[in-house]
Automatic annotation (TrEMBL):
<feature type="domain" description="COMM">
    <location>
        <begin position="106"/>
        <end position="165"/>
    </location>
</feature>
<protein>
    <recommendedName>
        <fullName>COMM domain-containing protein</fullName>
    </recommendedName>
</protein>
<dbReference type="Pfam" id="PF07258">
    <property type="entry name" value="COMM_domain"/>
</dbReference>
<dbReference type="InterPro" id="IPR017920">
    <property type="entry name" value="COMM"/>
</dbReference>
């Protein structure tokens, strides 16, 4: 992290820091690296992740840790601003990272329903009525799309289960 704070001018530091924070919990490196090596960016990401984790995801404590490091005050304030602006995204990404370290986490879903007009066709229906598309996030940061075809008997069980919830 010390090499990140050595970046001059302030605008370049801000650009690199913003890219690091927005991509903190995801695989890959930012596109604007200011001629920094990949291992410097990876080390900075790992340091930020460990500080956030050690501070129990309390971003005010994270700011206090940065204040105590003796880094340039102007750059620390810039980093505080970036953390404040990306607070909800950081916490959401941290939660996804924590959950996906044990299994894949659903980050998005979409569904398609096939409508059948007429009751006589529904009794002999052989193809799925519902298609569910899940986007999952694996612990290594890669997203995966999974498609489920749900037939009428499973769909009926799902509807009955949802209706019985009080």
């Amino acid at each position: 992290m010390d090499k990140i704070f050595q970046i001059e001018p302030l605008e370049a530091f801000q650009n690199v820091s913003e890219k690091i924070i927005t991509d903190l919990y995801y695989a890959g490196t930012p596109s604007v690296l200011n001629n920094l090596e990949d291992d410097v960016i990876a080390a900075a990401k790992q340091y930020l992740i460990s500080v956030i984790s050690e501070c129990n995801f309390d971003l005010q404590l994270v700011k206090d840790v940065f204040n105590s490091k003796g880094w340039p005050e102007e750059k620390v304030k810039c980093l505080h601003g970036l953390i404040d602006r990306n607070k909800s995204d950081l916490l959401n990404a941290a939660l996804n990272q924590y959950n996906s370290s044990y299994c894949e986490t659903i980050v998005n879903f979409d569904w398609l329903v096939k409508l059948i007009l007429g009751t006589s066709e529904l009794k002999t229906l052989k193809y799925p009525l519902l298609q569910l598309v899940l986007s999952t996030l694996h612990k290594n940061g890669k997203q995966n799309n999974v498609i489920y075809d749900i037939h009428k008997d499973i769909l009926l069980k799902m509807i009955n289960a949802l209706e019985s919830i009080k």
